[in-house]
Amino acid sequence: MLTATETLDARLIEKARNLKKQKNCLVLAHNYQTLAVQSIADYVGDSLEMALKATETRHDIILLCGIRIMAETAKLLNPEKKVLLSHAGAGCPLSEMKKLTDLKILQNRHPEAEVVCYVNATIDLRAASTVTCTSGNICRIIAALDKEREIICIPDRNLGNWAAYKTGRDLIMWDGYCSVHDQISAAEVKKVREKFPGHLLAVHPECSLEVCQLADYVCSTSQMIEYAKEHQKVIIGTEIGLYRQLACHYPEKELIPLSTRMSCADMSKTDLEAAVDTLAGELNEVNIPPLQQEKALRSLERMFLLLEK
What we know:
5-stranded mixed β-sheet
C-alpha cells in the first residue's frame, strides 16, 4: 500500500506529465535536485549539459529545476524558448558574492588580461568575460590561452586554485567560494579516507586545493557520475544530492558521501510541488537583456572554439 506521501507524489508526477504534454514543456533537473524532482525530468545533468540538451528539442517551454544561474544558461542557449525557474528564490551565494563592479576594478588594473568566467556565475559577469569555462574543462581552457597574457579567473577561488595548480599558470582571482564545498577541510577528508581505506575519493574542484590534492579524481558532477559507474567503492565529494542520485541508481555499489553537511540550501528550495506549480502557472520566467545575451553567448562560444584546438 502506498503511503500518503507516495500517493501525493504519484498525483503530482501524473499532473506534471499532463502539464508537460499540454504546454510542450521540457523539464530539466540538475544532478543536485531531489530524486522526486528528478522523477519528472526529461533530462538530468549538470549546468551546461542541461542547456545544451534543450537546444536539441522543439519544446516551447523549459522548466529548469535548479538555481537561477543555470536557468540563465538555458535561456542563453535557447533564446526563443520560454524558460522557467522552478523556485523564484533559488539563487547561488557563490555567484552573488562579488559584483560586476569588482570585476571592472580588476580589469582596470589588468586591461590586457583574459577573463575566464565559470559558467556558474551571473549572466552579467559572463557577459563581461572573454571566455567561459566549466568545472570539468577549466584546466583545458586555461592551458589553451596565450601564455604571454595575464588571466583573471572568476568567481571561485578554489576552482581557480585547482586550475593554477594543474596548469602552472599564475591566475588573478577574487575571494569567491561555494560554502557547500569550501567548508570541507583536509583533516576531515583524511578521517573519512582512514575510515574507508578501500574507497576511491572523487571531489568537485569547488573544494579547497588541499582537499583536491587528497582526491583520486577531481571532476564535475557529470564526470563524477561516470567515475562512480566505473568503480565499486567511491566517496562522493560534492553536494549530497548527487550521492543520493547515485545511491539510488547503483544500490549494489559501496558509495559513501564525503560529508552529509554538503547540502545546498538553494538547491533544496525546489520540491516536487513547487516545480509542478511553477509549470502550471508558468511562473518565474527568466529573461536576459539583448546586449548581455550577445556578449555572454560570445564568451561561451569562445570556450567551444578553444576546446576544439
